[in-house]
UniProtKB/TrEMBL annotation:
It comes from the Archaea. GO terms for cellular component: plasma membrane. This is Twin-arginine translocase TatA/TatE family subunit. The chain crosses the membrane at residues 6-28. Coiled coil: none annotated.
């Protein structure tokens, strides 16, 4: 007798999957299962969009931090020029 060996542990296959599907039909009814699947898909899509927005905001914040350090470097260069100009004027 050949038995189903799941490729990934924890994912039911064969008879276990049939039992789970029967329980779902008994609990939710055959008419509500497509609606449940659709709403689950929409929720996953919204979650994905929210995650992408958060990732973009984090990336913008990181890029903003690097831009600030560039501005600080330019300010330091400007201060150095002012110091050199002050030295030349006072001499």
């Amino acid at each position: 007798m050949i038995s189903a060996i799941p490729l990934i542990g924890g994912i039911p296959a064969g008879p276990e999957l049939l039992i789970i599907l029967r329980v779902l039909v008994l609990l939710f009814g055959a008419n509500k299962i497509p609606k449940l699947a659709r709403s689950t898909g929409q929720a996953m899509g919204e979650f994905r969009k929210g995650r992408e927005q958060v990732e973009e905001e984090l990336k913008d914040m990181q890029d903003g931090g690097q831009a600030d350090s560039t501005l600080d470097d330019e300010d330091d260069e400007f201060d150095d020029l002012e110091t050199e100009t002050d030295k030349e004027t006072s001499a």
